[in-house]
């Protein structure tokens, strides 16, 4: 019975991405969630679909924010985009010269996809058309993790070369290299406001970096 409008106002205080223009939509979603929580049914998970996705093993999967689309990366050097409800393959993103290992949507927007490969490059794609906007080159070893900032202005890549790099989505260039780990960087993540990024490495350490300075 919590007032949805008051609840959304409270959420907005801590979530800069919820702007006035999308407030009504969020209120609608909160009300739907309240209705769901009020239902007494026992919901059980069941197998929805099995998709024969790639000719070689998969490496990673990722949903867009709404869950209407998902992507799969594979040893077959491609990333595929799928419609969740129908299970239909929408398009295949081709162009990498080796395993496509790290994949992500630029959530919450979902109009772009980044793919990181063992070919040492990261590619930026259009979700709707499959067009490749940019190929980011600069790592000297395999890319094994990547992440967009929430503002969808940067993509970060982590590599077996012990560095992470930040790339400009609009211009397609490298902004800064994060150097300091002594072993492979296998995970990374931006904070909500996008001014910090953390990296985790096989050197047993986690590093927190300033995005503007790369230190």
TrEMBL record:
Spans of the WD repeats?
51-92, 93-135, 136-177, 178-215
Q: Does the keyword Glycoprotein apply?
A: no
Q: Does the keyword Repeat apply?
A: yes
**UniProt keyword annotations, A-Z:** Repeat, WD repeat
Q: PROSITE patterns, per this entry?
A: WD_REPEATS_1, WD_REPEATS_2, WD_REPEATS_REGION
Q: Which InterPro entries does the record match to this protein?
A: ASTRA_WD_repeat, WD40/YVTN_repeat-like_dom_sf, WD40_PAC1, WD40_repeat_CS, WD40_repeat_dom_sf, WD40_rpt
Database matches in Pfam families: WD40 (PF00400)
Q: Which PANTHER family match?
A: SUPERNUMERARY LIMBS, ISOFORM B-RELATED
Protein name (Swiss-Prot/TrEMBL): DAW1 factor
This protein's gene is called Daw1
């Amino acid at each position: 019975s919590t007032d949805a409008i008051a609840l959304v106002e409270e959420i907005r205080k801590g979530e800069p991405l919820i702007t006035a223009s999308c407030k009504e939509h969020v209120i609608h979603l909160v009300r739907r969630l309240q209705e769901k929580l009020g239902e007494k049914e026992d919901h059980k998970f069941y197998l929805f679909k099995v998709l024969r996705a790639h000719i070689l093993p998969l490496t990673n999967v990722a949903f867009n924010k709404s869950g209407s689309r998902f992507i799969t990366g594979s040893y077959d050097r491609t990333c595929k985009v799928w419609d969740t409800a129908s299970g239909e393959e929408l398009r295949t993103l081709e162009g990498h010269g080796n395993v496509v290992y790290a994949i992500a949507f630029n959530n919450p927007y979902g109009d772009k996809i980044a793919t990181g490969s063992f070919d040492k490059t990261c590619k930026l794609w259009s979700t709707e058309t499959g067009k490749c906007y940019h190929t980011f080159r600069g790592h000297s070893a395999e890319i094994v993790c990547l992440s967009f900032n929430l503002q969808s202005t940067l993509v970060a890549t982590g590599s077996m070369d012990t560095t992470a790099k930040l790339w400009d989505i609009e211009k397609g260039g490298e902004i800064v290299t994060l150097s300091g780990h002594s072993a492979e960087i296998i995970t990374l993540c931006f904070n909500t406001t996008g001014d910090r990024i953390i990296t985790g490495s096989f050197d047993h350490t986690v590093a927190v970096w300033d995005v503007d300075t790369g230190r």
